[in-house]
């Protein structure tokens, strides 16, 4: 049985408790339950597999959320969509959403059709190798869109980047298409972001959703960018669990540089594979934890410089506009300006410039009552975020047992409690 979202609202806290009691009793007795709760300020929502489970969760839940000027914290929440880069994708990703949410399936199919027209390759065969709806072999390999049992040898093999879904020319377009399709689906359900933030190629998703680029142009550009990078010599990236000042003295003259400032104790390095391996050895000797990332290239490092000019030329051929939704820049760590977003040179150097993601996250923390929603697989970005308030996810990581459908419905439940007026007619297709 698929999970469903059960929600209720009321004008005040006492009224809410009565509404919750009435709904729980209706669920337990099999009475008809309203499918479209009213948009009142005191709210409660749960996700359950059946009415009995929903009744139990409703009775166990604490006070419902409120919104508006009289609610806790005052004012409406600032919803922020978070778009991840590559490295955590896997076959069957977002498969439950693809099977059970027509809007998501239509949006993803549209993106994949545009990519097939641009590249001649149908990436469905990589993302869903067994074909949609095939138990054990189709998307997710299990009911509800859970990840298939991972190939442990491949996950821990440093050659994992040779897997097809980790090849740059496949990974980047798939990351863009999946997250953009999910963002469009959430917007259609009434979740309007106040701001966006993207990591590496995720900033392109943010830019497209913000209206900087048209979807067809953005998808063609991402495919072109990936092909350009794929033609470069191999590179490697290393996630180091330490601050930059602890890492920099150990880089030596190996051509390894900082690719991302992700947090006070997380720095990403990039460079030639052998050089990265030597640096990893020196870090291990210093008892500094690090791990190789599943990529065959040194993104956001000087090794990307050869593709800057051809990428700039491709960008100059498409219209670029100031963003209609604000997002902080990976390059500067501050809110991107209209001039930067519309400048082909900005996006060209974005690829070879270190990411100032920790600073960008600081801009998100400055928003009133931020609620972040991660649209990529796993918890990479929510794990980096330090703001107070909900940090919601939508697609499980490869080792998780929870399905993407359950995670997404749970995120919608929390957004409803935070004051988002969801489109309940659209939600009926999910639940």
Automatic annotation (TrEMBL):
Residues forming the Malonyl-CoA:ACP transacylase (MAT) domain are: 82-416
Q: Please give the GO cellular component terms listed in this UniProt entry.
A: cytoplasm; plasma membrane
Q: Where is the composition biased (Gly residues)?
A: 130-147
Keyword presence, Transferase = yes
Q: Per its UniProt record, what Pfam families does this chain match?
A: Acyl_transf_1 (PF00698)
Keywords for this entry? Phosphopantetheine, Phosphoprotein, Transferase
Gene3D superfamilies reported for this sequence: 3.30.70.3290, Malonyl-CoA ACP transacylase, ACP-binding (3.30.70.250), Malonyl-Coenzyme A Acyl Carrier Protein, domain 2 (3.40.366.10)
Annotated GO biological process = DIM/DIP cell wall layer assembly; fatty acid biosynthetic process
Question: Which N-terminal residues, if any, form the signal peptide?
Answer: none
Which positions are tagged coiled coil?
Answer: none
Give GO terms: molecular function aspect only.
fatty acid synthase activity
**Span list, region Disordered:** 127-149
User: What's the protein called, per UniProt?
Assistant: Acyl transferase domain-containing protein
Q: Which organism is it from?
A: Actinomadura viridis
């Amino acid at each position: 049985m698929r999970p469903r979202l059960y929600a209720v609202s009321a004008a005040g806290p006492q009224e809410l408790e009565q509404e919750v009691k009435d709904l729980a009793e209706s669920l337990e007795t099999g009475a008809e339950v309203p499918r479209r709760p009213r948009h009142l300020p005191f709210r409660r929502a749960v996700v359950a597999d059946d009415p009995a489970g929903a009744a139990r969760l409703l009775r166990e839940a604490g006070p419902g959320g409120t919104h508006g000027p009289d609610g806790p914290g005052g004012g409406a929440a600032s919803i922020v969509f978070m778009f991840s880069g590559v490295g955590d994708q896997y076959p069957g990703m977002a498969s439950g959403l693809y099977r059970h949410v027509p809007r998501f399936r239509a949006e993803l199919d549209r993106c994949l059709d545009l990519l097939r027209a641009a590249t001649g390759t149908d990436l469905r065969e990589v993302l869903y190798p067994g074909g949609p709806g095939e138990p054990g072999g189709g998307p997710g390999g299990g009911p509800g869109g859970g990840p298939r049992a991972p190939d442990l040898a491949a996950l821990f093999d440093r050659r994992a980047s040779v897997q097809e879904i980790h090849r740059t020319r496949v990974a980047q377009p798939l990351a863009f298409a999946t997250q953009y399709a999910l963002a469009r689906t959430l917007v259609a359900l009434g979740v309007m972001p106040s701001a966006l933030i993207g990591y590496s190629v995720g900033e392109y998703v943010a830019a497209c959703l913000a209206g900087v680029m048209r979807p067809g142009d953005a998808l063609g550009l991402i495919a072109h960018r990936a092909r350009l990078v794929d033609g470069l010599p191999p590179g490697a990236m290393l996630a180091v669990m330490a601050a930059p000042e602890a890492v920099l003295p150990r880089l030596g003259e190996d051509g390894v540089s900082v690719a991302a400032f992700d947090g006070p104790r997380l720095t990403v390095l990039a460079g030639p594979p052998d050089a990265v391996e030597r640096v990893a050895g020196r870090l291990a000797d210093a008892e500094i934890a690090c791990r190789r990332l599943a990529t065959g290239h040194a993104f956001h490092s000087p090794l990307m410089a050869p593709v800057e000019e051809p990428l700039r030329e491709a960008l100059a051929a498409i219209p670029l506009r100031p963003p209609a939704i604000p997002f902080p820049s990976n390059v500067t760590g501050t809110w991107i300006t209209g001039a930067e977003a519309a400048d082909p040179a900005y996006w060209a150097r974005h690829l070879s410039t270190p990411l100032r993601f920790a600073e960008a996250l600081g801009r998100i923390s400055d928003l009133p009552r931020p609620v972040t929603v991660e649209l990529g697989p796993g918890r990479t970005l929510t794990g980096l975020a330090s703001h107070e308030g909900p940090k919601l996810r939508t697609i499980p990581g490869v080792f998780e047992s929870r399905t993407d459908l359950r995670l997404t419905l749970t995120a919608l439940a929390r957004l409803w409690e935070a004051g988002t007026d969801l489109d309940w007619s659209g939600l009926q297709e999910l639940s």
